[in-house]
Amino acid sequence: MSAPFYEFGLIGDNAGLMVALVLGVGFGFFLERGGLGNALKLSAQFYLTDLTVLKVMFSAIVTAMLGLFWLSKIGLVDLSRVYLLPTFVLPQLLGGAVFGLGFVMGGLCPGTSCVSASSGRIDGLALLGGMLFGILVFNEAFPLFSGFYYSTDIGQVTIPQVLGVSYGVMVFVVVLAALASFHLAERLEMRARRSAGSAV
Amino acid sequence: MSDATGANRVLAGAAGALALLALVAGDPYRSATTSDSGISQALGIEIDDTHRVSAIQLAEWVRGRRPGLRVLDLRTPSQYEEFNLPKAELTDLSQLGTAEFDSTATLVVYADDAETAQRGWLILRALGYPNVYYMKDGIGEWLGDIMNPTISPDASEGERAAFEKLAELSRYFGGLPRIEAMSKDQSTDEVLRRTMRRSCAF
């Protein structure tokens, strides 16, 4: 079969929503099983004592990237039909900074706050409530900053297009960076465990 | 070495090997055009000329009121508004998978290009409709063969007799058969403009 199924009309709106539901439930389940519903575990990322988030996210990126690259090469995925979000440089830089600040302060990101809330954690519920309130405020206040929101639009671009390198080089560099960061993360965690052991 | 560490190393090795191969594999976007043939192979359905319908054949089906004939235009709404084939229904290619037709219907898909028409054909065949056809050259073929058929002044008697049948079909749809050598460099747009000036949009 060739993907994206929805784009080729092989599945309709309802089936697409069902697939999204199944994938979402699966994603949440594995995040929870990986311990990513726990704000303490996520916060430990920023103290370099537990780098599970980095390893999980980088693993997901590498898996998806290699999967898409090779499935496209053998003709099972049409990458030209995969939607790319347009890039708005300054608004997205600011959004990233706000996201990071919220992550550090709350110990959870949007996805993991849903996971945390669904597993009954109070902090997760509080963050989920805050997120919904933020969405409401954002939408109500949108006319005030819509000019900035749509500024510095460079369209649907990819990093290889911007840097002028091939997709293969990009895949190689990202995988190399991921493997190096996994190795570094293991060493940092080992050092943190040792120092925690000696402190006791 | 624990089992988990061993598995991690195997996965890391596999990722590294795939990444190394990616360096020399080329642009993944260039392979994208094979996706339709990928679907075709997976479903065991072959696209070939036996599923192609010519503009002349379609015109005869329309004039003969072939039972269950549905003509699906896969172009944009503005292109459809500008000119469409008789009986044609504007159909969004992305919605084709959810559209419902009678299983005995004869479905004909067309667009501006063969690729889109074949993609529509493939989706309908994958959904199990047995009588599906595509027009390879789409609207251009209709404009050339039905709306503006021409015959060379030095054509043989046999060719003239065949042309007379075609001319009759052409006139039925408001076409203008002519005895002249049609310029080869006329674009579909030029033919369309000329046809539109004759006010024979359906």
Structure description:
The complex is a heterodimer of chains A (200) and B (202). Chain A has 8 helices and 2 strands. Chain A has helices at 13-33, 39-43, 52-73, 89-106, 110-118, 122-149, 159-163, 167-199; strands at 87-88, 153-155. In chain A, helix 1 packs across helix 5 (110-118), helix 3 runs antiparallel to helix 8 (167-199) and helix 5 (110-118) packs antiparallel against helix 6. Chain A is globular, with a radius of gyration of 20 Å. Chain B is built from 8 helices and 6 strands; from the N terminus they run H-H-H-E-H-E-E-H-E-H-E-H-E-H. In chain B, helix 7 (157-172) links the parallel strand 5 and strand 6 (178-179). Chain B is elongated. The A-B interface holds A 1-2, 6-13, 62, 66, 68-70, 72-81, 166-169, 171-172, 174-176, 178-179, 182 and B 8, 12, 15-16, 18-20, 22-29, 31-32, 34-39, 42, 93-98, 119, 123, 126.
Task: Explain briefly what this protein structure is.
The complex is a heterodimer of chains A (200) and B (202). By secondary structure, chain A is mainly α.
